[in-house]
## 1
Amino acid sequence: MKVLPAVALGLFISLCSLTEARAQGRPKLAKQRPVTFITREARVGKVMYPLADMLKAGELETVNREATAFDADGKKGVKLSAAENEGLAWLKNIDFDHGELEVDMKGKDVFQHSFLGIAFHGTDEPNTMDVIYFRPFNFRTDDPVRKIHAVQYVSLPEFDWEILREKHNGQYEKAVTPAPKADEWFHARIVVKGADVTVYVNGNPQPSLSIKKLNTNTHGKLGLWVGNTSDGEFANLTVNYK
């Protein structure tokens, strides 16, 4: 069984027994101790990634963005700054294959300046990844065309939003149901199972988006993503490895 690279000392990912976590139905949290390696056997059940603590411990790798930790309004997480072009914060030493990703995010109600989401199956090649991202400024718009451009899948670098909208209009982007307020926190659950990717928002059992991946990558890096000129806040990231 392949063992992933060592996680630097200082990253605290708390894990309790699988039996207890399943019984209580919550992410695995126990004594804080440094985890020096993570095997695929250890990644069973739901694992919480403490983004603010990971940033302070140097366990987030930022690309074209500055990241700051915050603890306010009942949320503890990381904010990525705004800048030209896309930006990322990769979780170091995490190799995500399939499962359920859950995260709280907050953008802003500024037209064409709020794109944020989750990147997964990233590779060492520049700008090569899958991304599920949101356009909060379109959540509650009265424009019916903009409204169906609220959540988007892209497979970079080959299939960006422009190509997908031109060649597969309405297939890889949809409205978000129920529509959150643009400048408030919302919860996303992204289910990756083989080539199938399904997105749920704010506990709705009906998906806002359901697509098939447009590449053959089956695992890779996991990170926080923001689009051109966009910042974004992220908290409560968990992965249910199934």
## 2
Amino acid sequence: MQRALLLRSLRLPAKPTAILKPLNALTTPPLLPIHPPTTRSASHATPQSIPSPPTASDPPSITYSQHPQGSANDKIEEITELYATAQDEFEIAMEETEKMSVYAEEDRKAAREELGKVQEAYRKAVEGEDGGVAEEVRRRVGQRIRELEQGVAGMEEMAMNQD
């Protein structure tokens, strides 16, 4: 009964399967007319200006990793991902060490392992053939890695003083 009264007051059809139109123009945006795609400048990509994915018959194109700056960015991205994991492990290990929990030793071991992975990737990047890439890697991530090394060393010292 209440539904019927509500439907009558809204002047909607009684059948719920009927397609309902918006109650007012503010609830839904108006439908825009469909226009054929046009070409625009590169900053406004349209379906016509988006390149199709390469196929096996396409010649290889130059990628960023072939450029020294791209190579540095790739290495820095890899080191940054490893650093994020190591930082997370360090934070967990530090928390468990401060609480003197039974998990602290295993968490410190995991933090040392992740730090070792970061150090290895950093060492490979810095000792690589390209001096420009090595300098860029040193400049952009070296300080963070040194801070993490110092943090892990401080955590180990804290653990030894607790015993």
